[in-house]
């Protein structure tokens, strides 16, 4: 759960509390603040969390592109940040947002709309 | 995003679609099915997902204890599975559950109740 942490502008007290996966990232859940819909799961490093806390726009680290990614920067489907919370172990982040348009790049409202698995109970 | 995958009873077609982090795990969000509360984030490998789909109880892989963990197995704070969905990239799981009692080991209803971060916008 520890790894080298790249320099960032995140408050050092908060950075000291954050528990990162081996790749230095923390999973971040984006939830629509009023309806409760879980929109997507992204990944944040310290700097992405800092930018999310300070700019009012959700910013993630793209594992596939290896770059910071302001959600909606190209699509316009911005996430306005309403609140940010850590979980009890400081190893997961919940961001309540106001999502403009579709959260999913497929055009679905959420990334979890299209692939419900059959239960076999 | 690929790693060796331990043998499991998960449907092979589903296992072939699943995209795991370097540690072989996929983050799983537990959400209360009726209120929309995000309760916690846990981790599943193929076998934990299989057990979640087939037993009706949320089962995670504990990274700290390195063992399977049926949520509520000791506390009684069981998560009854209502639905399971993958996201658009098949690298995150959303489990809608009916949570008995507190989801958090601290006694809070959710793991995200206690640590709201200040915004500096």
Please give the order of strands in the largest beta sheet of chain A: 2-1-6-5
Separation of the first and last Cα atoms of chain A: 34 Å
SS field, number of helical segments of chain A? 2
Number of strands of chain A: 7
Tell me the number of structural domains of chain A.
Answer: 1
**Quick one: CATH class of chain A?**
Alpha Beta
- Report the uncertain regions of chain A: none
Q: How much helical structure, as a percent, in the residues of chain A?
A: 10-25%
Name the chain pair whose interface involves the most residues: A-B, 45 and 45 residues
Pfam families (chains A, B): PRA-CH
Catalytic activity (chains A, B): 1-(5-phospho-beta-D-ribosyl)-5'-AMP + H2O = 1-(5-phospho-beta-D-ribosyl)-5-[(5-phospho-beta-D-ribosylamino)methylideneamino]imidazole-4-carboxamide
Family (chains A, B): Belongs to the PRA-CH family.
EC number (chains A, B): 3.5.4.19
